[in-house]
Design a protein that fits this description.
The complex is a heterodimer.
Chain A lengths: L2 E5 L2 E3 L5 E8 L8 E6 L5 E7 L6 E3 L7 E6 L4 E6 L8 E7 L6 E2 L3 E5 L2
Parallel strand pairs in A: 2-11
Antiparallel strand pairs in A: 1-3, 3-8, 4-5, 4-9, 5-6, 7-8, 9-10, 9-11
Chain B lengths: L3 E4 L2 E4 L5 E7 L7 E6 L6 E5 L3 E2 L7 E6 L2 E6 L8 E7 L11 E5 L1
Parallel strand pairs in B: 2-10
Antiparallel strand pairs in B: 1-3, 3-8, 4-5, 4-9, 5-6, 7-8, 9-10
Classes of the chains: A mainly beta, B mainly beta.
Chain lengths: ~120, ~110
């Protein structure tokens, strides 16, 4: 059974940083693109970033370019999202998802709240 | 960027009704279109990909069709457990944008 478990969310002040983690199990992690998708409270889904199997390609939504960095550790079956210079509009539940365009599996999400 | 527009934004239907949700892309995306279901307070779930391919385990009352710019998600006989918000998403190129969602309720 595929499992994706996010952690690292919390309350942070504007301008602060957080690092999200996603622990994957139940599939060959190193064989799949992985993605982060977020959902602001009461709003729709927004793709944030994705990363190729070997980490050689990374893509971001324009609103986070230069502030967020996606990475992975295939030896640890883990995906990460380093979030710097956080803004109020980054407040959302962040989901880890298996896949590049089609998201076959999703984690339960971790809530990031940016507020003073 | 290619924008995805769903209609309606919300709808209410009776159990047993046939329900259709439409998704329109601002440019052609061939069949690179997925549908997701998000039940209240839950995680999104993949229903359909490649416009019409049903994900394993999804009930056969769900179906998808379309190509190019116009797509539909159809529920052939609405069940109470289908109450959810449905999202379309294009994935032919970055960014893989979602539609704004369609909230489905039981009348």
């Amino acid at each position: 059974e595929v499992q994706l478990v996010e952690s690292g969310g919390g309350l942070v002040q504007p301008g602060g940083s957080l690092r999200l983690s996603c622990a994957a199990s139940g599939f060959t992690f190193s064989s799949y693109w992985m993605s982060w998708v977020r959902q602001a409270p009461g709003k729709g889904l927004e793709w944030v970033a994705n990363i190729k199997q070997d980490g050689s390609e990374k893509y971001y939504v324009d609103s986070v370019k230069g502030r967020f960095t996606i990475s992975r550790d295939n030896a640890k079956n883990s995906l990460y999202l380093q979030m710097n210079s956080l803004r109020a509009e980054d407040t959302a539940v962040y989901y880890c998802a298996r896949g590049k365009g089609v998201y076959y599996d999703w984690g339960q999400g971790t809530l990031v709240t940016v507020s003073s | 960027d290619i924008q995805m527009t769903q209609s309606p934004s919300s709808l209410s239907a009776s159990v047993g009704d046939r329900v259709t949700i439409t998704c329109r892309a601002s440019q052609g995306i061939s069949n690179y279109l997925a549908w997701y279901q998000q039940k209240p307070g839950k995680v999104p779930k993949l229903l359909i990909y490649a416009a019409s391919t049903l994900q394993s385990g999804v009930p056969s009352r769900f179906s998808g069709s379309g190509s190019g710019t116009d797509f539909t998600l159809t529920i052939s006989s609405l069940q109470p457990e289908d109450v959810a918000t449905y999202y379309c998403q294009k994935y032919n190129s970055a960014p893989p944008n979602f539609g704004q969602g369609t909230r489905l309720e039981i009348k």
